[in-house]
Amino acid sequence: MTQPKMRMSILIPILYTLFLMLPIYWLVAMSFKTTGEILSGFSLFPQTWTFDNYRVIFTDPTWYWGYINSIIYVSLNTVISVTVALPAAYAFSRYSFLGDKHLFFWLLTNRMAPAAVFALPFFQLYSAVELFDTHLAVALAHCLFNIPLAVWILEGFMGGVPKELDETAAVDGYSFPRFFVMIFLPSIKAGVGVAAFFCFMFSWVELLLAKTLTAVAAKPIAATMTKTASSAGYELGLLAAAGTLTIIPGAIVIYFVRNYIAKGFALGRV
């Protein structure tokens, strides 16, 4: 490789990384500033470091319960979505039936509609059955978007498992539930990881339904962040600190499923 090409091969990844990391760095730097310093002018580093923004988040129940509520309904949604999608994906990957291709397509149409379309119907429905302002309400609402996506991802992974595996297990005397849990699931654990990741991330960042279907008891952190105005204006440092902490769960999930996501790209399902 020639010298200019070597330099470019090093320079381009560095520039790309800097471009991606700059907004995150800016957010973290702002979280250690006061609102007054943020508004006073441009600075790469905090002139006066302060941890007051983080202290407010970890001591004010309104803030830290926002994170707890978000984690609860996101975890619920991820478990429900993947659990429901597994048998559906297995059926699509193993059996042919009348209208299977059309049904598979219509499953994905929910992903084509914005969440705002479903906000009012969900609000009226959950108010009628007394599910409003509960973690389960938000988790079930997000299932409308996440289950079709999980089915699509898992069907791709299951399609790569030979059908002879099912037949061999049946000959060996395995019941279907035992075969599915002990043999089939381990062979598609990458797909389960990818599906769980995308369900988690959609539910974690979705704001409209989460804000519409909650009031106090299950209020998510995203809704709390939209109500930081005071008599002096928006508390920008507090918002930056909350945003910094909001990134952490997604980063942790990405770290643990990064290899599975790579396999998903290889299969063309991500």
What does this structure look like?
With 270 residues, the chain is mainly α. It has a single domain (60-267), classed as MetI-like (MetI-like fold). 75% of the residues lie in helices and 1% in strands. It has 13 helices and 2 strands. The protein has helices at 3-31, 35-40, 52-59, 61-94, 100-108, 116-128, 135-159, 164-171, 176-187, 189-205, 208-212, 221-225, 236-267; strands at 229-230, 233-234. A two-stranded antiparallel ribbon has the order 1-2. Strand 1 and strand 2 (233-234) form a beta hairpin. The longest helix is centred in the first third of the chain and has 34 residues, at 61-94. The radius of gyration is 23 Å and the shape is globular.
Explain briefly what this protein structure is.
Helix content is 75%, strand content 1%. The chain has 270 residues and is an all-alpha fold.
**N→C terminal distance:** 33 Å
CATH architecture: Orthogonal Bundle
Low-confidence stretches: none
Helix content: over 70%
Q: Top keywords for this entry?
A:
about 270 residues, mainly alpha, MetI-like fold, 13 helices, globular
Topology:
Blueprint: H1 3-31, H2 35-40, H3 52-59, H4 61-94, H5 100-108, H6 116-128, H7 135-159, H8 164-171, H9 176-187, H10 189-205, H11 208-212, H12 221-225, E1 229-230, E2 233-234, H13 236-267
Antiparallel strand pairs: 1-2
